[in-house]
Amino acid sequence: MTAAPQTTCYRHPDRETGRRCTRCGRPACPDCLREASVGSHCVDCVKEAAPTTTERIKTRWRLDALLVTKAIIALNVGAFIYIAIHDGNYAATGSLGHRLELYGPAVNNGDWYRLFSYSIVHAGLLHLFFNMFVLWQVGRALEPGAGHTRFALLYVVSVLGGAAGALIMTPHAPTVGASGGVVGLAAAATIVLQRQGVRFWDTGFGPLVLIVLAEGFVIPNISMGGHIGGAIAGALGAEAMLQARRHGQPALGWLGAVLVGVVAFMMCLAVAGNG
Question: Which of 219, 110, 132 shows the shortest CA–CA distance to 177?
């Protein structure tokens, strides 16, 4: 009788093995097998079954309830460090800080990017810390319910609203900071909580918005226009989304929030050269 040929590992022909991959059936040595929920899989099957980068990003997007909040904080902290290193100071008074700040004449000359970039420039560590701390608190309350994309849209709309308010009130005064966007989100969270039956004074964010707005009357160098504009834009954007969802037309809510942002953007361009 002729002896049956010995089975060797498909990756290591010099190694005899009596085991096989329970997925593809190929013989494999212990070094080439990985324990699975049922049996063992060879390293190639494990690699093929692993999620792609796109799938991992989608999974993270779904599972991390505060993904956008964290991303905004990371962007601001990263920008603060980079600007500080580039300009050699932490007060946003160097060349890069000046190129990114909101300044009416510069916007009027075509620097439209300043309508967004001003929000990642901060005049010191305390300024950055306060804005990011409030953003974290608002994000914890608003982003899980609103969803990542709605939350991000409300922030961008609020940043544009803050830019419009700052340019209307003080077009020739440089403006920096994420507070317009943060106050807008706080106003949006207040609207949402009120619709859920929470009294204005019990929302936590409503009184915060009032305190931030009042600071403009007593503390110098605070952009009161930026805070007011951000609060109005955030509240309007949230109201548009809530009313649309209430009437079963969520797409109209997106459209309404985008419209608020477009109007704010056009107002910025219209008033940038005033004064």
Answer: 132
